[in-house]
Amino acid sequence: MPTEFEFIENLRKKFALKRIGDDCAVLPKDSKTDLVITTDLLVEDVDFRLAWTTPELIGNKALSVSLSDIAAMGARPVWAMISIGIPEKLWDTDFLDMFYQEWFIVSKKFDVEIVGGDISKTPDRVVVDSIVAGEVAKGEAILRSGARPGDLIFVTGELGGAASGLKLLEGGVRLESAKSWQKTLIYKQLNPTPQVKTGIQFGESQMPSAMIDLSDGLSSDLAHICRESRVGARVFVDKVPIHKKINSLTKSRDEKLDLALNGGEDFELLFTVDPKKIFVLEKEHQNFPFHHIGEITANAEIIELISTGKTAILEPKGYRHF
Amino acid sequence: MPTEFEFIENLRKKFALKRIGDDCAVLPKDSKTDLVITTDLLVEDVDFRLAWTTPELIGNKALSVSLSDIAAMGARPVWAMISIGIPEKLWDTDFLDMFYQEWFIVSKKFDVEIVGGDISKTPDRVVVDSIVAGEVAKGEAILRSGARPGDLIFVTGELGGAASGLKLLEGGVRLESAKSWQKTLIYKQLNPTPQVKTGIQFGESQMPSAMIDLSDGLSSDLAHICRESRVGARVFVDKVPIHKKINSLTKSRDEKLDLALNGGEDFELLFTVDPKKIFVLEKEHQNFPFHHIGEITANAEIIELISTGKTAILEPKGYRHF
Lengths: 322, 322
What we know:
Two copies of one chain form a homodimer. By secondary structure, chain A is an alpha+beta fold. In chain A, 35% of the residues lie in helices and 26% in strands. In chain A, strand 11 (303-307) and strand 12 form a beta hairpin. The N and C termini of chain A lie close together (9 Å). The model of chain A has no long low-confidence stretch (mean pLDDT 93).
């Protein structure tokens, strides 16, 4: 049974699809600008559960996951469309009102214009397809394929929070009765914040050589960069920033690391930078909010996990659709 | 309970969405070109049934309904994306292969580049969101709002075929054992042909004052034009082109008319033309393939249905999602 990734790889080869393989497709807009565009399908009982979230949080997440893809290209989001299918039983409730209201709030926050969409009936479950387009200077979209041996690897925030939130939800914890630390983790899962500002800054500064957003999990997403760039990577275990609230969830070092390395949906940015540029990167970003977690190697598609005294191979274990 | 149309109207007002209300959103591309873009959600057991169709036909229809929206703007389709969700039980079959194969064939036929998409798991049903973008000269997208009293009303083909095909499928007729006339009607339902070439010609000639594709049905779609243009219309019953094979389905004149006036999904183009341009329209289109069915009036939002000696009011009765 092929995975989603293998299936898409097959399609890419079979139909010679040159624009597939990044967070967004890159298309020419005008003489100075490229358009980047992404579509993300969210399905009830696969990507969210109505009992665990709210219509507002679904509206926010639908737009945020696509904004995160735009950020990962170093682009500025410009417009959005949404297709939504809902069962008849929800049509008479305020579900759609709440959903759209939050979707509009998020679009306003990030200066994204709502330009269209589709609404349809479904037999029993909610489904949302979110489409967002962004703009970036011609030829300057930051791809997965630009990492070079010697480049340093960074992430924008702490990892494992969203996966920990999912664990809590699966264990029966609900937002309305959650403790403060649980709420923080659950919100990481249900209410992600796309790194729009950092994405725009990086598009302008052209600082990263490669970039991706952390949707599948660090081990999988770093593997995507390595594959597209035909390089390897070395990750220093002690440098991986584990979300602080995970300490309240588990004391096990292995479990915490597993959440940070393989947990999906943190929607932070993972990027690589030529070491010669680090001085400028530090100067441009006050209080340096990024975590240096490793470096790119020439050892194609091998990701080494380095801890004191030993080296292991990090296999992609993040979220798989199948 | 608001209809889908009413719900969208409310959104439009509430959030001052100026780009919503046509078949596509119109966005500036460069100094000479506008981008038009559409998204269409197709849901299993609402828009199609797996037992009635094939993966190839779903692939074709998903792209064709969006191409029809592009044609209705007078635009040339340029690129497409697709998001698809399928249940695990279909992942191991050739469903996706067959679906994509046909989708690629149709995209090639109409010179549309596939630029991306998303694949996701669903609990039990197939869902497809089709996104297509097109290009048209700046300011020359043909809108629903341009019809003026005195304009003549045309459709590109015969009507009611797709609704008749649906009736046959609902009555238990299946493609594999259908008679020839039944097959023709069922294919109108399952295998629509978007009027891409005519759409492009009309964008270039700027012949129509207003245009829409017949997805909901003539009575509903003409009402959309009347509403956006703040005009009325007069339809001559005897001029409505009823699909010829419907004669084999029913001898009832009322039933045939009902299928042609209210049946959805024919994906023909409905357009209005200033009578002063008719001579040029006839000259530009050999064997004049269009059917003149009526005229635009100043009687805002009232559609009169004229038959020998009497006038009735035509209410929108086409396909409603809710």
